[in-house]
## 1
Amino acid sequence: MQFFLRSEKMFSSGMADSMPETSGVGTVSSVPMRFVWRYGGRRVYLTGSFTRWSDHILMSPMEGCPTVFQVVCSVLPGYHQYKFYVDGQWRHDENEPCISGDYGIVNTIMITREPEPSVNTFSGPDTPGSRTNMEVDNENFDHVETMPRITEDEITASRHRISVFLSTHTAYELLPESGKVIALDVNLPVKQAFHILYEQGIPGAPLWDSYRGQFVGMLSPLDFILILRELGNHGSILTEEELETHTISAWKEEKMHLHRQTVRRPLVHAGPCDSLKDVALKILQKKVATIPIVHSSSQDGSFPQILHIASLSGILKCICRHFRHSSSSLPILQQPICTLGFGTWAPTIDGSHEHHLATLKPSASLSSALSLLLQAEVSSIPIVDDNNSLVDIYSRSDITALAKDRAYVQIHLDEMSIHQALQLGQDMNSPYGFYSGQRCQMCLRTDPLHKVMERLAHPGVRRVVIVEAGSKRVEGIVSLSDVFNFLLG
């Protein structure tokens, strides 16, 4: 049984939809902007300079989070002020930029601008024209830039601002306006689950136990790596019959035995009203790649619905978007990544870097790559040539490429090279974007933190490879968990 859970954000734009475009602006088009009031109330209205302070737009409570209200308005690019009318009282959001204005003691300010390609700002991963892959902008890897060091007080202040942002924004903001979550029944054969994840272009899925009437876990690429290795021990070539006899439920029981677990671990999840900081900390503490955002319409928790699959890259994308035009006020974002003391780096002559940086050659066997992914407990491995220059990257999620044309039936893990395994996935076209975009993200050791964060905020990217200018020799790796442990440390 395979089923889909559709998650939609419903917006009520109120009188904003009928607002005129304001005379004298010419052909400048309006920009849809979402306004959010997170602090409760029974009836909440929005008004601002874009309504000439005359129209009050009714805001709607968010589905699954009744204390949070929102509305989408069409706003012309420029400088605007706005405030909220909550249960008969004028209010402002103290966690957003604000000033004293003519229409109340304090008004919140928002700047909505159309992108300016020539301006060097904290653009975030959505910026049109951003090019970040293995083959583009090679000239950007031929020079380095120096930036001034900052004090510990400035680092602390920057961390605090980011922490406040994450604490005052909820997991609901991670939800796309419309989308679906694919869930798998625990009684599905592993073979069928393997094909579903490949066909849908996703690395993993929540598991539904119809007998217990609840979600009980996640099926991840790590499961498939372990399955292939275990089944490979029973014969020289994997067969469809072997995979057919393994249901997801049977595999989970076997996995508990392999890890000597006596108690089944509960599903790690979060609610739509949980703060982004709580979600990030839960992912870090539980050492998982993703967690589902679960909402139940009943008080006893029955009839649960998964609204979204949250990841650190999605949370980082929110940070990039929020601080897009204010990176100069956060000195930490301007610092070279090599000066901040986190990540995994290649050994230096003076021995200052002690962590082992795992890399492999394209000719190495797929079995060695899977073993290294497990032993090093990493999400991906840089693939380098004889000069240690980066040529590609092999990730845990690449294991689903073996479902193409039922390749797992025909291969032997010790005989297939990493190069051959990567070729299997070259024409994977994900309908939901997990495999879209660039496979491998690179930066220089002198690049500022915000640039590394932009790379990591791309869907499906969990590690950025730090390369040497010009040669692209691998110097280090910075992961999503590295960045969040540093920002929240």
## 2
Amino acid sequence: MMAGPAGDGQWAAATPALAALRVHRVYARRWVFLLVVSLLSCSNATLWLSFAPVADTIAQHFLLSTDQVNWLSLVYLVVSIPSGMVAIWVLDSVGLRWATILCAWLNFAGSVLRTLPYMILEIQDPFAFLMGGQSLCALAQTLVIFSPAKLAALWFPEHQRATANMIGTMANPLGILVANVLSPALVQKEEDIPIMLSIYIIPAGLACLLATACLWESVPPTPPSAGAAHSTSEKFLDGLKLLVRNKAYVILAVCFGGGIGIFSSFSALLEQVLCVNGYSNEFAGLCGALFIVFGILGALLLGLYVDRTKHFTEAIKIGFCLTSVVCVAFALVSQLRGQNIALAAICSLFGLFGFSVAPVAMELAVECSFPVGEGAAAGLVFVLGQAEGVLIMVLLTALTVRRTEPSSSTCRSAQDTLDWKVSMLLMAGLSTLFSCCLVLFFHTPYRRLQAEAGTSPSVQEHQCPAAADLTPPQQTPPEALPKHSLGPDAAGNPGAAHSQSFS
């Protein structure tokens, strides 16, 4: 089985008669591919946010300013903007397998480079090694973040796509959870920093080994659904042009991209926002952990729900509105002292409502832009989100002011005199703005579901293709079907009929 471009395009090249006879079949090794991508995404996220929960200790140890420590996280967002376009081309043109292997090696190399100042004596500028390692990991991030939507489309049947996308996408916030919990636990004093850096190499190395040894092909021998058979049917540049001209996609990309930027800024700045009001690093880590745990729980439940109902638009609109309400609550309560229980509850709800819509939004991006390749559809949303994240994070840090009243800060650096009130109110305002725009202006049909309407069911992985009925089922062309069966109407409501798979 060939991987890469030839493998990705082989289904679309089949003749219509052959496509009608082909049984849509799924393979058990799709879960192995999903495991590798999930582990890689989790490792990459831990490397991204490993410094943020202990920013004050890092700044004190390396004699850095708070802004320099923030750049160890911000570099992910900056690097991903230009490299994101290349990553889109790699995924849709070179193939999912080689993109994942390249990502794994970049991620592993970056994790090792960060530790070199402690392996080699007399390093004059360890910050350069830290920044270099973070930059390599940032290059890897664009490849792995874009992968879940494409992996779900190429390997999973239609009734498992949202769930598979959810698992791959939520592995990234799981890595953020690990960093929020593990970094403060490992770094009790400055001398513990080398131990933290070394431990984070382990999952990166494991992901690199599994990707290199266990991934053999970019696509399965037989497509799992009709949509997979037409995956990446548009050329790279042609696909980007179609995306830019697609009004619904542009609105989704701008609003959801803004949500990505807000969540990236929240994760990177949480410790700094809380410590100035007397909250410990351990409590900030707990809030970050609750943020992720409830986010993963919400994504799991919502992913299963939309897989069964196909209510993509309704789910993302409601999720955005609830997230905005909680973001306003955090902006207000985070400026008060002694509100541990309230802050913990707010961070839990923030994750529950906010993170849960991420995999749904990625699936919706593919649905409203079909037949553009999944890598381009999901990737462009993320690139825009990173660009918005850079602007939001720079703006939030720039709007901090020096406090004049006595401080009860627990920070260990100069950030103890900063006031984040205006910055947090701006974050809440942006969240509300993006939610309102999405609710009022986003409407789309589900193009991929329309294309799959009336197709034959998938075959379980333990079944033999020869066992399928040799007489293809009678199919009705999509244009002849009643309007309600082609997915959602103009308001985005899902249709009554969708093709079902059994796996």
## 3
Amino acid sequence: MLNVDALEGWEFPLLEQRYTADQTMLYAATLGFGQDPLSAGQLRFVYEKELAAVPTFAAILCHPGRWTAAPELGVTLTKTVHGEQRVFLHKPLPPEGDLVARARVHAVQDKGEKGALIHAARTLYDRAGGDPVASILHSTFCRADGGFGREFGTVPKAEPLPERAPDVVVDIETRPEAAVLYRLNKDRNPLHIDPDYAARAGFERPILHGLCTWGLAARAMLEGVLEHDETGLRSIEARFSRPVFPGETVRFLIWREDGLCRFRARVEARDVTVLDAGRCLIGAGHDAPEYMVPA
């Protein structure tokens, strides 16, 4: 059972990372940017000439690692899955930089027999100027650890998607080796490359990283709504529903609203939703999220 007191008082070390243009380009390439070599919009993210960073790259910077493995937290690691992911850009992410990050456990929710949710937040700051760059909320669903009866913190509630037809549909074909490539972003979980390990986890073959599927949502938004202008994507969030297998085509259904877009992602070949309750804030005029961690 989760030790909620330990989670509420958990102290993260100062997280630090210097990242390069090479890492920025690699991340974009693992999402499939550059598959169309004649697309000037795609090339902005993989070519050092006037290079731009994909906003979701922020989610893997200054990562705290597998901190939930600490025995005193009481997390049943074999029963955890990535539940939700959010990122808010306080300003456009530079193509290279030197960052420090502050992190905290923002909230814990008890879902009873279904399990529990741990929401870990961190905010990235520019080391030189001290300005906030991005805030991230990573939500872990602990399927075997509910029923402890105490919660703390709050998280934004997902709103239902419109019932009308989507305004924009974007299909993204993933490459068969997509998970092999995405592992180079320092996520070496064998679930994404080892067939025997994937079989023991209940999958017919290795699955794509959830954060890769989530990154594809940013690519769909950049290509289908923002004409590859990354400065227009202020935040992106989604709930993970089902895994994607490398090589599948993911269809993004996007609804435009005032100042934001909502979306869902599906693999139509298997008739499954893989991302749900998706939401993007578009343009300026949006307040920083409540999960921002002070410097």
